Structure formats: structure tokens, C-alpha cells
User: Fold these one by one.
Assistant:
Number 1:
Amino acid sequence: MQPPSACPCRGGIPWQGVLLAVSLLTFWNPHPTAQLTIEPVPSDVAEGRDVLLLVHNVSGNAVGYAWYRGQITDRTRLIVSYSNLTHSATPGPAFSGRETVYPNGSLLFVNLKKEDTGFYTLQTTTDNFDAEVATEEFCVHGLVAQPSLRATNTEPHSVAMTCLSGDPGISITWIFNSQTLQLTDRMQLSPDHRTLSIDPVRKEDAGEYQCEASNPASSTKSDRYRLAVICEWPPSHPVLLSYISTVKGHHMAPAMSMG
């Protein structure tokens, strides 16, 4: 039996012809112009660092760019404008001296401050006076200060280590022997993760502990603290001896003993 070579309706055309026609229509159908967008690199940046407002999908016949602080194209908020005709940049009222605009429309912002957090708007103009606008935001975070680690006895056979930091809005990660700490059933973290409790302490808990404080743009670790466990609980006689010491280079200063 031969495969059908035409549509079943009267006057139909071969199905290969239909596919060819569809293919040609798809090929010649123009794609819609991609929308102008801004990509902050990075989107979360530390205070004192730089951010690049990278522009995508600029029209090929763009002749000028204008960057504004905020979400509207208000002349009083103009940072800088650039002309592709004269290849020159003109600062506006909101120019701080820390911005550089490139011929492709992208804007480099250096030595950022917390108050630079917010929205930024780009307006492009073409040679036929069409305008296109895009808005994006980025966040500037303070550099995280180094935390400190304090250890205390909560019971003769347990220890609590607290990560001390005055920075708001940070997350805390615990590190054991240079690796992310894997919690056991004898370990418990406080709701804000700032305090690590071990009860009871075992010999396998001996080693170096650190806490790492971080925000979306920066992070820093405390000095290393070393926990030594001499005798487990319950021992044959009620003695648990452990100590914690700060490890800085090759110097080790005992900070606690339990017995």
C-alpha cells in the first residue's frame, strides 16, 4: 500500500508542500525586537566596591543614552548623558564623579556607598527620535566585620560557643576543621545560628571551630578556636577536662578549662 501523497480533501496539495510552505513562512517571519534591559554585575555589591550596569539589546541605530537616578526620566535626576554622534559624555545634576558611561550605553559605578542603593533608569534615543526606557536596581551592603567566638560551660559535660557580631542582617555558618560543620544529634543551634551547643562533648568533637558571618555581598570568619577533649562523659570517675584556645598563627592561648 502506497503512503498518501496529497491531503484527503478535494483539490488538496501534497503534504510535503504544506510543510515547505510553513517552513518558509516561519523563516521569513521577522522576530520581534528584543527589549532593552539592564543587568547589574553584581546585583548585590559590598560598600567600596564597583558595579557595572550592563546594557542588553540596545537598538543598532541608537545615537544617545541618558542615565537617571530613580525610576523616572527626571532631568533633575540625570546622572550622565552620552552622544554617539560626538562621542562625548555630559554630566547631569545627579553626577557624583564616580560614574563612567561607555559607548554601548553601559554604566560603571565605582567606590559605592550604601546610599547608592536603589533604582537606575536608562533612556536610549535612536536616529529617528524613538526612545526606549529600562529600569533596574542594585543593593549596596556594608562590609561584614570579623566576628569573635566565645565559649562557655553550660554543664560540666557540655559546651556552648557563641558567634559575636554587631552587624545586622547577617547569616552565620559554623566551620569545623576547615569544613562546614555537620551537626550531630548532640549539637544544637540557636534560632539565629549564633550559638552552637554540644551536649555531651565527645572526643570526636575535638578540633578547630570557626564561625563565618556573611551578607549577600561579603563574608568573614572568626579566629580559629580549638576544643580539646581529654575525657568523655560519663567517665569511670566524674571528670571531664576540655579547653578552648584561640589559634592565631602558631600561638595558642588557653581560654577555658572544665573539670
Number 2:
Amino acid sequence: MRRLCRTGATLLFGAGIGASASRLLSSRGGEEEEEDRPALLSRVPVIPVPRVQASELTVTPGGTGAVMKYGFPSLANIKTRESYVTSYDPRTRTASWVIERLNPASLTGPSDRKRCDFKEDDSVHMFHRATSADYRGSGFDRGHLAAAANHKWSQKAMEDTFYLSNVAPQNPHLNQNAWNNLEKLCRSLTKRYLNVYVCTGPLYLPRQEDDGKLYVRYQVLGRNHVAVPTHFFKVLILEQADGRGVELRSYVLPNEPIDEKVPLERFLVPIETIERASGLLFVPNIMKRTGSLQAITDR
């Protein structure tokens, strides 16, 4: 294991991110792994980031300018919707990331999911967009990145989450169980924090094969070759209601069934793990906004 130090504290950093999903699920947070079983999912604590002005914290839903308060993880193919912002990857036919802001006001309202249907994103060139036909008979769910239930405040906002550019192929068991529980956790955190910023995206992680080399392999669906992620990530930026600062949490889940007995805390990872694996950057944006970053080792 390698250790990454910041501001006098220590975070566990996985020696590699190419483990198979079964190895990831069997890893135990904080324990050294065998050399052939690199630990991606080391258990790490919440990271508090101080010095956010209370006057900057808002509770009204909508407004994509507020959604991007902590900057863009990348700058390619940015698209703005009613209540989320996304960066689209035309090669994979899915988003690289989606950012949304949750608070009690965004989670309540008159919207009706039954009035929503998945739809092609006609802002994407026809060569590079996914269609529902790509998913049909594939055995994968159309998994939301920005969850529909996060945007009940507006029918338009909820309908915008059904663009296929906000969707990625997801194992049905994962989508309906562990991933759904993680989405519920994000919503429940709005009871403790003023705003919950959620960045979600796919990962395509390498794994070691029989020849001892690392390869990135993933399935594609349909005539448009929609990429099936090997994993998904969520990065949470939690604004404290008293204005003292924000906290940072980050999760990585494999795109396969997860035993319901495995707690979500098992999938907490250092933010650097996601930054290295995805090519995105979160910490520099937060530091620019808040002025400092302090890591701790215990909650």
C-alpha cells in the first residue's frame, strides 16, 4: 500500500485499481492486501474542508450556476440541463460525469415519474448518441447518473434526467439495490447538510489477466456500441448548515451484483483514487473555492 499525506494527516491510497469486482468486494478496509490483490476500496473517512461563507449557501432548487459552485472536473462537451450539468463522452455514448445539487427544496414537489420516458439526446450527433434500442434485450438497466428522484421540484427537471446522455448500462441487481441505496443515502444527507453536491460517473478500470498484464476491457451494447462501465463513482460535497465548511466523501462500486450485507462504507475510497482513474480533478476546484483542504484519519 502507498500512503498519501496532505496537511499533516494520512489517507490510505490503493496500490492499484485493476482488481476484479469480486476482489474489490472481498477486500477489507484498512488492511494490507496480498500483492496480487490491490486494494481499491480501502476505507477512508470524510474529509472536512473549512472556510465556506454562510452567505454563499443557498437552498433553492434549480440554477445550474449554483450546481457548478465547485467548478468543472473537466471541460469537454459540457451540457446544461434544468438542474444538472454534464460532460458527455461521444466515444462511450455515456457521460464522463454529471453534477447535481440536492437540498430539501429539490427533493419535494409536484413532478410525476410516470410521465417521464427515456429519450435520445438530440443535442448529440446521431453517430455518437445512445438509443433505447441499444439497451433492449441487453440484460442491463438504463441506470440514471443524476437520479430522477433527486429532482421532484420540477417536472421538467425530472424529465431531463431521462435523457440517455444521463444514463449508463448498469447491472440490474446493482441498480435496484446497492446503487439505489447510495442514491437514498445522498438524499438523506440533505437532512444534515444545507446542500449536497453529487458528481456521478462511469469508470473503466483495468484488471490483471492470465498473462500478468493489465487490460481495460468492457462490453458494448447495440449498434451504437454503448460502453458498459466496469465501475461507477459518486463524489459528495456536503455543505455544513452552520457555514463552517464542507465535507468530502467518495465512493466506487463495481458494476455487478453486490451482496446486500456489504455496507456502503466498504466502498468509500480516497478521492485521489477516482481522480487518477477517471482523469477528472475535484480537489483543486474545492481548494480554489475554500482556500484550504485538511484530511483526517478518523471520524
Number 3:
Amino acid sequence: MSYNNFNLAIEITMALLHHFLLLLLLLPNIIAESEDPSGQFCNTNTKINSTSRVSANIDRLLPQLVSGAILNGFIATSYGNGEDQVYGLAQCRGDVSSKDCSTCIQDAAKEIRKRCPNEADARIWYEYCFLRYNTKDFFGQVDTSFGIFYYNVQNVTDPDPKTFNKELGALMDKISSQAVEPTNKGLGKEKTKLTPFITLYALVQCTRDLSKLSCAQCLAIAVGNIPTFCDNKKGCRVLYSSCYLRYELYPFYFPLDSQNTLTDASKVYHVSVVSKP
């Protein structure tokens, strides 16, 4: 190999190495940006100045919410005093790992301030976690004033819708009964076979600040909205500030079912947002 060719080979190698290193640096950002929240709520009636004491208290509250959720999967606490006091709650889905909980709640704390920088009442939902704060004490109160509904674009055909809805209702009753038991920390999840080849998976969860009665009340409202937003649909998610509901015709909760019985299940969803005055 000539001297010139040798130098050319080195230049090409260095250029490829440079691009490879650049890709490695960008990769975490690409991954992070792909994890979008399921929904958010920024109460425009609670505008605050970025230099206000309330805003500063939010910034001090968020690290407490993150550390508490990572440690226990749930935390409800406050920071500050008087009119500037801020109340916050963070919770991970009860079936996810501590690692997934940690990643999710840290993302939620970062994104909620980006998306709701000037609101004292803000909430953000991810698939694995939920975080909210407010200057009003909301602990222990059922809040279904703002709801996000995801529903599969495809309707159920096998089994027939009547049989499907009957089985879905029975499954929701079963897991709602699980969720209200204190030992289950607001979580209920179960599956049921609809046909030899199709399995229905469902999960509900209440925020852990709710009483047994309040949890049951929130889940009853969520389940009651299935016919309105998700009638005969292959999958549905109901996101409230006090409880969460989801069902699918494929495994989605942990530990994942190794037998995915419906490989052609559509995973395309429409979303509806409902806010009560």
C-alpha cells in the first residue's frame, strides 16, 4: 500500500469513528424523546409566575416525589406553608419493576415542568407512572374531573360483542374487588380466556391515598365509561387523576404472559379527552 493510500485509509477510519461516537452520544436523547407521556393536564386557571414562591416550592417538591416513588412506589406529600404550600403525589403502576418505576417517575418530573411551566395545578400520565401537584390539598379525594380515554380502532368480532362485554364486565368486577383491598395497594389485574385462542387481559389501579370506598367509587366511574368510549373495542385505557383502567387482547402487565395468543391484535388507538367544568 502506498503512503497516500495509507493516509486515506486512516482518514476514512477516523471519519467513521467520529460518526460512530456521535451516534452513541445522540442515542440516549433519541431513546428519551421516544418515551412520550400518555397525557397531561395543565390547569390554565392556576397561572403562576416563574419567580413566585409557589414555583420555587414546586421545584423543591419534585425531588421528594421522585425519591419517594422510587423507594415505595408511591408518595403523597407537600412542601411550603400557607398559601404557597404545594401538595404532590407520585405513583408507579404496581406491577412494574423498581428500575422501570425509577426511569418513569424521573421522566415525569422533568416533563411536567416543561409542559406546564406556569401552572400550579398540573398532572402527567405515563404508562408506568403518574405524577401531579396542586396548591389545593387533594389527598384522599376522588378526582374524575379530567379524563383521557384511549380506545382501539378495531371492534371485537370473536367472540361476539355480547359475550365479550359479559366477560369483560365480570373481569372488571373481579379486579376492582382486588384493588380495594389494602394489601393490594390499589392494584388489581387478571386475565380470562375468551376462546381457546384469545385471552383478555385487564388491570386497574387507584392512587394509594384513597380509602377503600373512594377507590371503589373511582373505579366504578371508570368502568361505567367503557360503554361510552370503548364499546365493543379490542382495547381501552381510562386515565383519571385518582384511578386507571386498561384492558387488551394481548399481554401488557407484568409478569408478561409468555403465550401471546393474539398475534394480529391491532395496537392503533384513538384518544378522547374529557374535562368537566
